[in-house]
Amino acid sequence: MTKVFTLIASLTFSTAIMAQHKTALLNGQVTGYTTQDKAFLSYRNGTQRIADSVIIGSNGTFQFNYTIADPTIASLTIGKTLALAQRSKSLTFYLENTAIKVQSTDSLKNPSVQGGKTNTELSQLKTRLEKIAPLRDALNTKYFSASQEQRNSPEFKKEIEQLSENYQLENKKILETFISENPNSFVSLDRIAEVVGYAPEAEDLDRYFKQLSPEIRHSEKGKAFALQIDQTKATSIGQIAPAFTQANPEGKNISLADYRGKYVLLDFWASWCGPCRHENPNVVKAYHALKNKKFTVLGVSLDQPGKKNNWLKAIADDKLEWDQVSDLNFWDNQVAKLYNIRSIPQNFLIDPNGKIIAKNLRGEDLELQLSKYIVD
Fold this sequence. Notes:
One of its GO terms (biological process) is cytochrome complex assembly. With 376 residues, this protein is of the alpha+beta class. It folds into three domains: 24-113, Immunoglobulin-like; 119-219; 239-372, Glutaredoxin. The chain has helices at residues 82-86, 117-129, 133-144, 148-151, 154-181, 186-196, 202-209, 214-217, 220-234, 274-290, 308-317, 334-338, 366-371, and strands at 5-6, 22-30, 38-45, 48-55, 61-68, 72-79, 90-95, 100-104, 112-114, 245-247, 253-255, 263-269, 295-301, 323-325, 343-344, 346-350, 356-359. The strands form five sheets. Strands 14-13-12-16-17 form a five-stranded mixed beta sheet, with helices on one face. Helix 5 (154-181) packs antiparallel against helix 6 (186-196).
């Protein structure tokens, strides 16, 4: 089962014909908490990530003020600290330009969300997706009830991959139908990313985007999505890889242009990304096998601010001998944004002339995959 860490995010910019930014209220009433607990709300307002918190009142109430232009996905958690809250049940819903009310009598286990057209549409989609919950539950039960020895067997991996593919196929069918039937919904816009997968091609994004209404496509989020499509086109196979310069661990600037004349595997990863760390041994093996054939790797880390030591330790622990760069800015890494990275691990194989010739090569046979493109 392929595993990646994914960010689904919308960029935004202003223009006179777009929706007005408005301030609205989120009111909540929950049971099962005390006045020592806090409600934590996170969402995006354009390019800005917002994280807010308030103390739960004595009667279980809380209130947030927020300002947005278009309906945006939000996450609500509750706990004494953010760390504890993140390990507990969370609620995903939409903030809209209208009053929203969240109620729960069982510590966010079965909350209700009232207010806004988009939340109604999200509820309708969740009802449809519940029909395939047995497929998801069977997959999870099969995997998590198995021993590590069972998980390592080829037969088990094949069975899990098949169960995963079955679930993903049914999930995609439901989402495609929802998008087709709800072209004037921001839920449809936000779910395109899930339909096309973690590393989509521009034509797939464009195909679903064109199904949406002019109102959605011309909204701030719609304009930002169109920009994402353009960025994806710029990193398609056959395009010249976008140029960049970023600092290595010692602070020295490294430029992609420095590698002209070599095959370069531009590898996006992070120390906190389990699937990336799992893939690193395959990259190390391929690097040592091919480094004398005008081939190298350039790592771009999406490690977080203040976590440089984690980055350096991962480089040492995983024996990554090639150049590494990062601005330690998490998903806002400037190179990652340039290459429209929404999930990791991801990579791009760039030829000696600077052209992208392959994408997302990985697995135990990575060396063999790379060898098909590398000409001595």
